Description:
The chain is mostly beta strands. The protein has 3 domains: 2-62, SH3 type barrels, CATH 2.30.30; 67-125, CATH 2.40.50.140; 129-185, CATH 2.40.50.140. Helices cover 2% and strands 52% of the residues. Strand 3 and strand 4 (37-44) form a beta hairpin.
Amino acid sequence: MKVIASSLRKGNVVEMEGRLYVVLKAENFHPGKGTPTTSVDMRRISDGVKVAERWRTTEMVEKALVDEREYDFLYEDGEGFHFMEPNTYEQLAVSQEVVGEDKVFLTEGIKAYLQTHDGVAIAISLPQKVTVEISETEPVVKGQTASSSYKPAMCTNGLRIMVPPHIGAGTRVVINTEDKTYVERAKD
């Protein structure tokens, strides 16, 4: 299926020269003069090689047909990360290369969208926001203004983020999975 280059997003799968590539990052550039372009960072699925490609925004790109379904995360072991399809109870092992840095967000029962091609997982999409607990953070320094100052904090899953001064250890917070930033204090 052909799509215009400017419509590519993270997680899409593109077919070029008979090989499949998963999109890691896609940016559209609109210079004042000249042709708008789309710059795409991709990973070749067969061997994991990263490739950067640039197209004119209106160029047509071959988008591969992949099966995308919601899966529940079960556990991690030596084989990789195991997910289960909630309707058929079919289990799928996903490699470390596919999950990448997103493994810090994988907790038992979290729902994620897996894209599969010929029964092999090639890309993962996590929920946009997840709730994590702060394990440790620096004490508040008197005199700092609350509006612009953030302090470093460590989450129970091992992720380091910046949080507002009023957040302390043991507090549950919502973070954005795409850029790993603090969104708000959890309402639970």
